[in-house]
Amino acid sequence: MTKPTQQAAPDLVEVELKKAHRHKGKDYPAGESIEVTKVQAERLKRREVI
Predict the structure, then answer these.
(1) What are the tens digits of pLDDT across the range 1-50?
(2) Is residue 49 exposed (0-12), middle (13-18) or buried (19+ Cβ within 10 Å)?
(3) Do residues 31 and 16 make contact, with C-beta atoms less than 8 angstroms apart?
(4) Where is the DUF7210 domain (predicted)?
(5) How many domains is the chain partitioned into structurally?
(6) For the whole model, what pTM was predicted?
């Protein structure tokens, strides 16, 4: 058996929230900075959360 190849970590970006948001089961107030993947950041931009 071979070891699985090391997967590249998803690109993380730090964003500041414009609106209150729940992420990973935790509530974040508006103005808080959180670290999310680029894909999540794009989703949040569409929803005008960041």
Answers:
(1) 556 665 666 799 999 999 998 877 899 999 999 898 999 999 999 999 88
(2) middle
(3) yes
(4) 13-50
(5) 1
(6) 0.66
